Amino acid sequence: MESLEIYKDLFYQSLRIRLVEEKIIELYPSDLIQSPVHLSIGQEAVAVGVCANLNLDDWVFINYRGHAFYLAKGGPLPEFFAELMGKKNGQSKGKAGSMHLASPKQGIMGASAVVSSTISHAVGAALISKIKRENRIFVTNFGDGALEQGAFHECLNFASLHKVPILFLCEDNNLAVHSHKKERQSFTLEKLVGSYGIPFHEIEEGYDFVKVQKLSKISIDEVRNTKKPVFLKIKTSRYKEHVGPGEDFSAGYRDKNDINKWKKLDPLLQDKKLYESFLGKINNEIENAVKFGLESPLPDREDLLSDV
Predict the structure, then answer these.
(1) Which of 19, 50, 140, 237 has the least CB density, counted as fewest CB within 10 Å?
(2) How crowded is residue 78: how many other Cβ atoms within 10 Å of its Cβ?
(3) Cβ–Cβ contacts within 10 Å for residue 186, how many?
(4) How many beta carbons lie within 10 A of that of residue 238, not counting itself?
(5) What pLDDT does residue 138 have?
(6) Which phi-psi region, left, alpha or beta, contains residue 226 (left: φ > 0; alpha: ψ -120 to 50)?
């Protein structure tokens, strides 16, 4: 019974994220969304499964494909839509948009449009926390496109050297925009991470939020107990184009059949009964959040240089 309730809870959270992003797709042509969007559709299970093992005061440094982690960690939905609409009542007063989401009260630290740039922020925050003898842990999530950036390698070295409580979390969809890993990387990730003395874990079934929740707990508990860095790679798949609300199979860099194989394993697409049972409640929440965004005021001249 307990396992069934866990499944239902994680299903609900994952479906909520997907329906939020499907609403973004619906709104996008109207120009209500005032920033580019990098959708997490297909990758929701990673955020939901990992965040299920985090405490409120644990910090997550998200990347620009950050809607899923923002929502899974508890970021408020009305302010989310207001933010994407560039409104004054948005989480960052309409100045951050989709690619720079933050919600510090929920431990969601600011995203960045620059690949791998928040990894060093997370490592620095973890070091300060260690100096202060705090108990929280830190998560930095990034795509496999960040793995060949210099900041990533420097942060592995620094985190290992100074033994800071951080989980390096790689959402591996095998793509950096349109480029596959085989075109970008000459190294084996496990060996690279191991060369810095950092434990390496991997989850292949990134579509399965229950398995992600169960297996990511091992890595998170290891960080919490040892106060040292751990690396976790979770294989996943994004269904939509790199940036924007549409499909991009015409670009020729990926095969629709490969995505369809993943979709056949996706609980949100396969468990239609549970999908339908949650649909009304979630859509009602989303409509109220969109209404909040639409009714929120736009920034004015006085807001131009505030908080800068």
Answers:
(1) 19
(2) 20
(3) 6
(4) 21
(5) 98
(6) alpha
Exposure on the CB side of residue 140, measured as CA atoms within 13 A:
28
- How far does Cα 208 stand from its chain's mean position? 16
Task: Identify the CATH number of the domain defined by range 2-297.
Answer: 3.40.50.970
Structure-token pair, residue 140: 């930095």
Distance CA 271, CA 158 (A): 44
What is the per-residue pLDDT for 40? 96
Residue-level pLDDT at 1: 52
Domain boundaries, the chain: 2-297
Alpha carbon distances (Å) from 39 to 50, 64, 219, 238, 239: 18, 9, 26, 8, 9
140 burial level (CB within 10 Å; 0-12, 13-18, 19+): buried
* Residue ranges of the chain whose pLDDT lies below 70: 1
**What pLDDT is attached to residue 304?**
80
Closest CA to 61 of 113, 128, 111: 111
Nearest Cα to Cα of residue 208 among 2, 64, 3, 1: 3
Are 136 and 55 contacting, i.e. CB atoms less than 8 angstroms apart?
yes
